[in-house]
Write a structure and sequence with these properties.
Elements: H1 37-48, E1 52-57, H2 62-65, E2 70-72, H3 74-82, E3 89-93, H4 96-105, E4 111-113, H5 129-141, E5 148-153, H6 158-166, E6 170-172, H7 177-188, E7 193-197, H8 200-210, E8 218-221, H9 232-237, E9 240-243, H10 255-264, E10 269-272, H11 278-283, E11 286-287, H12 290-299, E12 305-309, H13 312-321, E13 326-329, H14 345-356, H15 368-382
The protein binds 1,3-dihydroxyacetonephosphate and iron/sulfur cluster.
């Protein structure tokens, strides 16, 4: 086998100082150069006291994570938001669909704030309600809709979650996709099918590697093609109808790099998120949500080597917090989630100081009808047994 000398990014060694730091934002934000940003955030948070609850997804920058009251993957954060009915303000350091879920799961008096409204998710944008309704109409026309349970990944807009709520479906996250699929197939008995969106990779990896289906049981619905690019016969034969969506961050990891790393780092264990492509997951030693990845590294023996395929802020943090383990990023180049990175310290300071002044900025509010049905789908997820790899 040929060994290739790859310019892999060495982490936790102070060599990533020139990495991407997000995009400039106009407006009345404090400048990023303000040396008092940390002190300002501390002061604003202290003034707000228990009125504010700050949630931080694992992909957030360190400068933001330091102010999070809790950190977690999208499942844990949804549950944590629901568990703080006393907090008047929920400041969500994550992306738009997560803030929407927090709004749905909290009371109408609680206000959910996303410090930068540009923090969206390209994967969530790959499934629009009108497109999902067209796909459902095609399933009705093919005579199979009665056998189909729609399951949406948490990474989707509230109206898509509401669609699942209305059509006897549920939400899932990367922590519980296997349990959600088992639940879905049990709803309809023999002949059951799942319409899974927006992430084809999470759907395929879970169906094949956790539920023991074959790749032939899965078809891909392309919302940009007439009839999804599928025949009625294909829809009738499939068990998993996967939406053609993906994560632009996890889509970067390649099976070739796994091979190259195994050749250059003796004994390296490869640990990836299930949003990675199937061929990458097949070559990995372990696959799981961000909480699972953290838990695995925490439990690993000192001196062990790991190559991790997930967002770079988290991998860097793991490398920094575990200097006794060799942690390598599973990509040749920098790979932050640019929308997660929109939330930075200036935006957090701006949001917190505005609250101190009595102004609620960037509130995320889901309309009551959408909320009602999305809550049904989210609650079905929260009621699933053995929901999280951390439980
Ligand atoms: P989890 O938080 O479910 O691990 O998902 C990762 C992700 O891409 C969130 O946007
Ligand atoms: Fe969306 Fe991927 Fe970013 Fe998560 S990491 S917010 S799925 S683009």
């Amino acid at each position: 086998m040929t060994t290739v000398d790859l310019p892999l990014l060495p982490l936790g060694r102070g060599k990533d100082l020139s990495a991407e730091r997000g995009v400039e934002c106009p407006g009345d934000l404090p400048p990023a150069s303000d040396p008092h940003l940390v002190a300002r955030a501390e002061a604003a948070k202290a003034k707000l006291g228990s009125k504010v609850f700050v949630l931080g997804h694992h992909y957030q920058r360190d400068e933001v994570i330091q102010f999070a009251d809790v950190t977690g993957d999208s499942f844990k954060l949804a549950r944590d938001a629901a568990g703080r009915p006393d907090a008047e303000y929920i400041v969500f350091c994550g992306v738009h669909f997560m803030a929407e879920s927090a709004d749905i799961l909290t009371s109408p008096d609680q206000k959910v704030i996303l410090p930068d409204l540009a923090a969206g998710c390209s994967m969530a944008d790959m499934a629009r309600l009108a497109q999902v309704e067209d796909a459902w109409d095609a399933l009705v026309d093919a005579g199979v809709a009665d056998q189909v349970v729609p399951i949406t990944y948490m990474n989707s807009s509230a109206d898509i979650k509401a669609f699942c709520g209305k059509h006897d479906g549920a939400v899932c996250t990367s922590s519980n996709a296997d349990v959600a699929l088992e639940w879905a197939f049990a709803q309809k008995g023999p002949g059951a099918k799942v319409l899974f969106f927006p992430d084809q990779h999470l759907g395929r990896n879970t169906a094949v590697l956790k539920l023991g289906m074959s790749l032939d049981d899965c078809v891909v619905w392309n919302p940009l093609l007439p009839h999804g690019g599928l025949t009625d016969e294909q829809l009738r034969d499939a068990k998993m109808i996967l939406w053609k969506g993906h994560c632009s961050v996890h889509g970067r990891f390649s099976a070739d790099v796994v091979d190259d790393l195994r050749a250059t780092i003796p004994g390296v264990k490869v640990l990836v998120h299930p949003e990675c492509a199937h061929e990458v997951v097949l070559k990995a030693d372990l696959v799981g949500s961000t909480e699972f990845i953290i838990k695995t590294i925490e439990a690993a023996e000192p001196g062990t080597s790991w190559a991790i395929g997930t967002e770079l802020n988290l991998v860097q943090r793991l490398a920094k917090n575990h200097p006794d383990k060799q942690i390598t990023f599973l990509d040749k180049t920098v790979c932050y989630c640019s929308t997660m990175n929109r939330i930075d310290l200036p935006h957090l300071v701006w949001a917190l100081e505005s609250l101190v002044d009595g102004t609620v900025v960037n509130r995320i509010e889901v309309d009551p009808e959408t909320e009602r049905w999305a809550k049904v789908a989210l609650q079905r997820m929260l009621d699933l047994p053995g929901k999280s790899s951390r439980d």
